[in-house]
Amino acid sequence: MRHSLGIKDTVKKNSMLIVLLATMLLFQVLISSSGRGSLFAPSNISNLISQNSYVVILASGMLLCILTGGNIDLSVGSVVALVGALAGTLVVNLHWNIYVSIIICLLTGLAIGAWQGFWIAYVRIPPFITTLAGMLLWRGVALLILNGLTISPFPAEYTKYFNSFLPNTEDAATVLSVTVIVGVVICLIYGFWALFDRYTKKKKGYTTEPLAVTLAKVILLSVAVLVIFFLLGRHKGVPVVLILLAVIVLGYSYFTSRTVPGRHLYAMGGNEKAAKLSGVDTNRVLFFAYANMGFLSAVAALVGVARFNSAAPTAGTNYEMDAIGSCFIGGASAYGGTGTIGGAIIGAIFMGVLNNGMSILGIDANWQKAVKGIVVLAAVVFDVLSKKRVKSS
Fold it and tell me: Where does the source fall among the domains of life (predicted)?
């Protein structure tokens, strides 16, 4: 048995991360040469996080749906609009308690996900049809709630939970020092975890990367984290929404990779009949994936209305495409059973950099959509061809 991955395998495993870094450098060169500023400007890094927070949240849930067998949820954008409309009605129009309103919105998203999950998992209506119906249904309900109007502004007591920065001080030196210290702590924790995880896997006889590769990855990612936190410190500090994103990403990464229910998602996507014969309740797994997607759509809605400071009828338009595209670009298989939360997040960041970079360069919005479509198609084509190559060999 091999106990170490070769350099070629390691590069292949991290190919999307390499592409992301190359894309960021390309945009930096193009933006700098055109005199339009810098992709790595402190304010732009903060904007990248806030602008693409919804993509990260939705991609984390969409991956679970895709893992079950290449299934997708087309209704997430409409659910975002509906929950946002509900939040605007409760918080702005009716002046309800903010915490009660947030809980009601989250439960509404969960109920919508459970409703769609029931038809998909237990009645076995195809996910594409069920969520397509949901896309029309929930958008219609959102329009009825809003009556075609936009609700704004949201009170500061609500938006501070998603739009503020830490530490909450005007002293630039304190903001920079605290933010950098947080970055250093994150790097130390990550470095310890990476080395401990490698040691544990090697002790159990699992395939691992060469130590030099692990150390190189830790150093490079630590440098990237320190640079990002330094830039955030030069702006306003750590965005509160970044903490929420970290909790979601870490939580779902642990769930999918280290828990039995998480592994059931992969088993079902690999071969549903075999998983069922092995004792996996595939109906419950499918139901959970879509109920969870509804819940995360509600979270994305709460973040979205805080960022835009309004609940609009057009909110959430094409959000499902960004989430699906992020998963496929990040390495999720169109057939299910393959993909990671980390890969989906890299895909989400890639989509965000693509949008932000092209916007700074002044590229027409229609061309931006065309480029994103080509990128998503290329990712799926690469996956399909890779599968055929493996089968033929």
Answer: Bacteria
